[in-house]
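in:
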């Protein structure tokens, strides 16, 4: 709402305002852009250059690729992986990500891991112990606690619920 108010006050036409993103109706001149940047800074927001948006997208891509598509488990921590892949200090990337996305990189990683765990549970081809090992959790208890914190249910309960919602291929 604060960003929307500033855009209206500066008579900048826009199509949509969402967390971390504004879609303008028309390009704006440098003077209005500078005014907008100053107003947003006064409110505690930062106007991101296009390169910063690309960095956030790349952070997400590195995380998603590692969690959902890599066959080998990560041998270094995510902060090192992200920093190495993007050639920036992790603290800078972390602050940038949090300021735009409203969650930390660590929370984004947890959410992606939980989605992958859900996938494994739905396909029912691995035990919870195997999933914990595959996803680099220190124990089944740690995986279960994190899963319950994020979803509100235990992995076993989720697995039981998801099996009722799936139809065999011959019933589709």
């Amino acid at each position: 709402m604060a960003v929307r108010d500033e855009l209206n006050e500066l008579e900048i036409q826009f199509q949509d305002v969402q967390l971390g993103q504004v879609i303008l109706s028309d390009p704006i001149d440098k003077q209005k852009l500078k005014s907008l940047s100053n107003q947003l800074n006064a409110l505690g927001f930062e106007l991101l250059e296009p390169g910063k948006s690309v960095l956030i997208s790349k952070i997400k891509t590195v995380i998603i690729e590692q969690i959902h598509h890599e066959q080998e488990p990560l041998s270094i921590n995510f902060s090192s992986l992200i920093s190495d892949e993007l050639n920036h200090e992790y603290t800078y990337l972390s602050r940038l990500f949090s300021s735009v996305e409203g969650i930390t990189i660590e929370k984004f990683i947890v959410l992606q891991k939980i989605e992958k765990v859900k996938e494994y549970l739905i396909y029912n081809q691995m035990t919870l112990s195997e999933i914990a090992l595959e996803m680099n959790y220190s124990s089944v208890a740690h995986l279960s606690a994190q899963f319950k914190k994020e979803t509100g249910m235990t992995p076993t309960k989720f697995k039981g619920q998801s099996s009722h919602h799936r139809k065999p291929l011959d019933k589709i």
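note: The two ends are 45 Å apart (CA to CA).
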